[in-house]
Structure formats: C-alpha cells, structure tokens
Design brief:
The chain is α/β, with parallel strands linked by helices. The strands form two sheets. An eight-stranded mixed sheet has the order 6-7-8-3-9-10-12-11, with helices on both faces. The chain has a four-stranded antiparallel sheet with strand order 2-1-4-5, covered by helices on one side. α3 packs across α4 and α6 packs parallel to α7.
Length: 332
C-alpha cells in the first residue's frame, strides 16, 4: 500500500511504505517470530506533527526506533526528502541521523549521569557542527535559552540528578536540537512527567515547530495530548494501522471501534462506549496470525474479521472532513 499523504500544505519530508519489523523471541515451545510492525505506511510533512497513538505493545516505539535505525526494518521502504534510507550505513547513516533525532520516554535514563548539562550539549555541537571556543560556548547558552533552562550560568554546571523531570526532558530536547534536525521522533516524551509540567513540554515542542520548522512523529498513548499537539493522528493496534485522520476530524468522528474505545478511556470524554471487556491480554503478534488484530476485543467482529485483515481505505461518508482512512470491514 502506498504511503498516505501529509496534511495539505506540508511538503513530504518522511515517507514510509509497507514497513515491517520482525523479531525472533523465545516462547513456550522454543523460538518464534513476532511482527510488532506489520505493513505500516504513512508520511510526515515539513513542519507537521503526526501523532502515533495506541496502547502499550501496539508497536509505536518500534516504529520510532526503526525510523532512526536503532531497529533494522525487515521489509518496506523509508524515504527521507525523497531519498531511500532503509538500508544506508556508515557515513550516510550518520548524516541521516543528524536530520532525524529521537527524544526518549525516560529523560533520566537517556542522559549520562556523570556529565554536566553543558557537556551533554558540547559533544554534539563540536562533533557534528564543528563549533569551537567562544562560538561553542555561545551556542550552548543559546540552546539552553531556547528550551527554557535558565538561568543559563547556573544550569550549565548541573548534573542530571540535580534537575527536575521536566528540566531533564528539556535537556534531552536541547541535545536533539544541537545537530539542527528536521524531524524529531518523540517517544512518549511527557508520560513520565508530573501532570503539572506536561503542558510546558508540549508547548516548548510546539514553539520549536513554529520557530524552526521542526516536524515530529509524536508517540503517545494519550489521545488528549495527541489532539492538542498533533496535526494528524494515526491509531495503531497490534502493529497495524486502524485509523488515520486530521486530529480534530478523528476526535469528532472516530470510525474504528478501537479508536472509540481509546476515546472513551480519555479523561473528560463524552463517549458512551462500554469499556467493560473480559479480554485484557496483549494482541497476537505471531507472524502467522490472521485477520484483524482487534477482532478478539471488538464488539462488531464477525467471521470475516477473524480471517481477513481489512485494507486501510478512505472513508466515503459526507461526514468525513479531509483525508480519513480506516481499516474496518464494518466502516462506511
């Protein structure tokens, strides 16, 4: 399946077609192959935020780590600015990673505890952008100002354990910005932070989008933050795309039963979907699985759902606004 287009007005930056990631894992009867990402396609435009939403185990982080080539794709094609980067290595991969950076979920775990704030930024600025001396010192200060880590002279000398969770995530964002990327993969960047400071981190990321034209793949399990920050939302379950639409459209008009379930579980939602479900196990990720991965939890499931995976198709009703795709045998 060809990748879906970015939001109107955004030139294509990242294009992913039929991405597949397989892992060999140990099971009860020996090793087996699982497919946490199964023929996933999408595109991200310049200065666009694509929010990737789903439960834990849906394949979101695997997609993010594959885009920055921490994981190796088993199939499909990844293109960045029109150039295929699926299997690049060496200096080509290093150059690509300057353009595509990742901010991890745990800001403390992703930082070196024995390095000061300043040293976390000096290394990428010196290695990848060639700054030295007074210019290097100035750039460190500018980055700290940019992400709100002030007063700068005091912050420069601090170690990660001396920072709050929000400050550590701001440092992680500053480190990613040091190489002047065009796309940031933000993997649950606010999930480990206090509720009171989550909005500040999202506003910082939004500000960077506006000021320097950053694009994001924003990975989250929270539809509320996805609606606030994302231009479009892609819903993932069991390694498959369930639904994809502009953020307001998806929240206003959710078409897939899984999207409705996620929306009903969001605090403050007016959804009347019944959340009672006897099944709480993870979706089947085995390579030989059949049908829709959500079928065993879906109130609309029929025999065809358990046998055939529905294609991701355009919604055709008059109620749809913009591009709205859904993978469901029972959708309009």
């Amino acid at each position: 399946m060809a990748c879906t287009e970015p939001q109107a007005g955004h030139a294509p930056l990242m294009e992913v077609s039929d991405l597949v990631v397989r892992f060999r894992v140990r099971g009860g009867a020996g090793k087996r192959t699982i497919v946490p990402v199964d023929h996933v396609s999408f595109a991200i435009g310049s200065s666009e935020v694509l929010a990737l939403v789903g439960e834990s185990g849906s394949g979101k982080s695997t997609i993010g780590r594959t885009l920055v080539r921490i994981n190796q794709p088993s199939g499909g094609v990844i293109r960045f600015e029109g150039r295929e980067v699926t299997a690049i290595r060496g200096s080509a991969l290093e150059a690509y990673r300057k353009n595509v950076q990742m901010v991890f979920q745990d800001p403390f775990g992703s930082l070196n505890p024995v390095k000061t704030v300043e040293k976390h930024l000096i290394f990428p600025l010196r290695k990848h952008r060639g700054y030295r001396g007074r210019v290097l010192d100035q750039k460190v200060g500018e980055l700290l100002e940019q992400v709100g880590l002030t007063p700068v002279p005091e912050m420069r000398a601090k170690f990660p354990h001396e920072l709050s969770g929000g400050q550590r995530q701001r440092l992680a964002i500053a480190r990613a910005l040091a190489v002047n990327p065009k796309l940031v993969v933000a993997d649950e960047p606010i999930s480990m932070l206090d509720v009171s400071i989550r909005a500040g981190i999202l506003e910082l990321m939004n500000q960077l989008k506006r000021e320097v034209g950053l694009s994001y793949l924003y990975i989250t399990h929270d539809l509320a933050s996805a609606r606030y920050f994302g231009d479009r939302i892609m819903v993932l379950y069991g390694g498959k795309v369930m639904e994809l639409a502009e953020s307001k459209e998806l929240i206003r008009n959710p078409l897939h039963p899984y999207t409705r379930l996620l929306l009903a579980a969001t605090p403050g939602s007016r959804s009347r979907v019944n959340l009672t479900n006897p099944f709480n196990e993870a979706p089947n990720l085995d390579a030989g699985r059949r049908g829709c991965p959500f079928a065993f939890r879906c109130p609309l499931a029929t025999d065809v759902c358990r046998e055939e995976m529905p294609p991701l198709k355009h919604q055709t009703s008059d109620a749809a606004v913009g591009e709205h795709l859904v993978a469901c045998h029972h959708s309009p």
